[in-house]
Amino acid sequence: MALKMKSYLPTEDELLEKAPVPAQIEFCNVTKLYGAVAAVKDISLSVSRGEFLTILGPSGSGKTTALMLLAGFTTPSEGDILIAGKSVSEVPSYRRDQGIVFQSYALFPHLTVARNLEFPLEMRGVNSAERAKRVSRMLERVRLSEFGGRMPSQLSGGQQQRVALARALIADPPILLLDEPLGALDRNLREQMQIEIKDLHREFGKTTICVTHDQEEALTLSDRIVVMRSGQIEQIDTPEALYDRPNTRFVANFLGEANVLEGADLKVQSDVVPSPGMVAMLRPERICVNAPTGPRRSDAEHRQSVAGVIEDMIYAGPLRKYRVRVGDTVLIAREHVASGQEVFGAGDEVRLDWLRSDVRFVTA
Ligand SMILES: Nc1ncnc2c1ncn2[C@@H]1O[C@H](COP(=O)(O)OP(=O)(O)O)[C@@H](O)[C@H]1O
Ligand SMILES: [Mg+2]
């Protein structure tokens, strides 16, 4: 029979497709020295295909350096970077097939929006009919169809950043690199663009490495977050695990607010025996602020209660943040504003309750 029937047995190619995908990006003991300063110190890390990984850390912690090493704008002093299993140490930046977005947009100021988008296609030798088709499709995708003829300076910050994202994606590179992509935008626009980036990631499925110092951005966007400190990796985890189970005090403080339970008045009652050098940590939203004789929400054996005095209350829309003095420590408690809830003011005596299972131990 001349007709080719599809076999029900998987072909070798199909079997290979189903095999576990190797990491698409690997940092193997990478160090980058600038003189005596190690901007990046012995970092190892692997990123899977399609993953959205955020590098989060304070200014100067080595985030941009890590990204520039991956982009090939600078080379490691030690260690190696692999893409799809192959070392890229000899591959120049323009041949690494990565889309890059910078905080400053870095659009070509003397080219129209459409010409900006065309550029990566031209570099790859795509013919002009195909270029026009792809540019128009991409402009539509980022809702900038009417703006193709404008110069970048005639666009708002948010629009320029959408052009930069479109330009990074248009040649369909497998990897997308974002360096503080929303850093120049105001808060509302930043939140809108976070959704935009998330949608683009879902739609195009690019392996994405995003650098930011904004913890909220990292929590919102990422499959996993790498927390960096002084050139080193402090912890790698999913957003939820990082927030809920930080390993160190640094991570606990960098991702949100953290109460460290120290001192005689806050002797922690816990079933876990902390190792030496660990401190007890409690997130503000895990603390309930109650009247001293108010009802208790859980069994005594699971709960710890301490007496305190309100220092002040900060109202922030959906949240109330209390600062509560307990002996010589001030704890922060955060409560969602709800109807019928008792509100306390400075000087009020209160009882703080929390579940023992909500206490975490982190290295000091
Ligand atoms: N080209 C360079 N020359 C010298 N020092 C640099 C250079 N680039 C970065 N550094 C230093 O390396 C450290 C990390 O910088 P960077 O990677 O830009 O941090 P981040 O992006 O986290 O703010 C800083 O101490 C910075 O001053
Ligand atoms: Mg930086």
UniProtKB/TrEMBL annotation:
Highest taxon listed in the record's lineage: Bacteria
Family statement: Belongs to the ABC transporter superfamily.
SMART domains given in the database record: AAA
Keyword annotations of the record: ATP-binding, Nucleotide-binding, Plasmid, Transport
Listed GO MF terms: ATP binding
Source organism of this protein record: Rhizobium indigoferae
Protein name, UniProt field: ABC transporter ATP-binding protein
Keyword Metal-binding attached: no
Stored InterPro entries: AAA+_ATPase, ABC_SmlMolc_Importer, ABC_transporter-like_ATP-bd, ABC_transporter-like_CS, Mo/tungstate-bd_C_term_dom, P-loop_NTPase, Transp-assoc_OB_typ2
One Pfam family it belongs to: TOBE_2
Coiled coil: none
Domain ABC transporter: 25-255
